[in-house]
Amino acid sequence: MGLWQRIKRVFRANTGAALDKIENPELVLQQTIRDMRDRVPELNNSVAQVMATERLLLKQKENLSAQVVELDSKIKAAVKMGRDDIATAYIGQLQQAQVDLDRTGVQAEHAGVASKQALKARDNYVLNMKKRTAEAMQLISAAKQAKLQEQLAQTMDSFNIGDDASTFNEMREKIDRRVAAAEAKLQLGASSVDAQMQDIEREAMDIQLQDKLLEYKQQMGMLGAGTPPASKQIESGQPAATEAEVLNDVLVNESGAEGSK
């Protein structure tokens, strides 16, 4: 194959591919329907011309028939009057009129056949046009549906459900792990030895503060002499006085002091 043939083949292939991309089937079908409908008036004009020719030939045939009858009457009248010369002239005209009548009759028959054929062809074209139009409308509807499906497919492709689901599952797993780790750390911190030691130290500090408070109250004569501090009660094995008992002793001592005054 020559170089020029190969270039032509490549050019035609590229041109065909480009046309396939830009060619819209819906628009092409709509234009085809318009073209078919535009041809109907042309066909009607053509059929009308054929039918007009038929009518014209029939009219001419009718006129020639009348002329033949008239010439026949004139010949008979001329013969009765003894005018052979006039009768001979009318006979020549009659013969020509008969020839024209025969020829016009044949032409009228042919025109009638042509008129019927043209009318039938026009009717067939109209029926075929309606059929093609219906098919084209169905194809256009199918093309629109295909276009919508393509758009939906593109939308679904752009929104990848599988990837998003895996992302959600991965993030959920990470969050669950963090929550579990935080709960474990909280539980471990609450039950650790350091936390227990802090509780014991806090309790011991409270006992020391209570002892200091009782010492101040003893020094001020607000408590009985035999009431030991809370820490001494704990060491001797005696239960420490509750806050309510301490308040009662204070009230009793204060009332006794006021009575002695």
Summarize the structure.
The chain is mainly alpha-helical and 261 residues long. Helix content is 89%, strand content 0%. The relative contact order is 0.05.
Notes on the protein architecture:
With 261 residues, the chain is mainly α. The protein folds into two domains: 156 residues, Helix Hairpins (Orthogonal Bundle), CATH 1.10.287; 68 residues, no CATH class. Helix content is 89%, strand content 0%. The chain is built from seven helices and no strands. Helix 2 packs antiparallel against helix 3. The radius of gyration is 63 Å and the shape is rod-shaped. The termini are far apart.
Key words describing this protein structure:
mainly alpha; 89% helix; Helix Hairpins; 0% strand; 261 residues; 2 domains
Largest sheet: none
Q: Mind telling me the C-alpha Rg?
A: 63 Å
Task: Report the uncertain regions.
Answer: 233-244, 257-261
CATH class of the largest domain: Mainly Alpha
User: Number of helical runs?
Assistant: 7
SS-based structural class?
mainly alpha
Write the H/E string, N to C. HHHHHHH
Structural domain count: 2
First-residue to last-residue Cα separation: 142 Å
Helical percent range? Answer: over 70%
**CATH topology of the largest domain, which one?**
Helix Hairpins
Beta-strand residue percentage: under 5%
CATH architecture type of the largest domain? Orthogonal Bundle
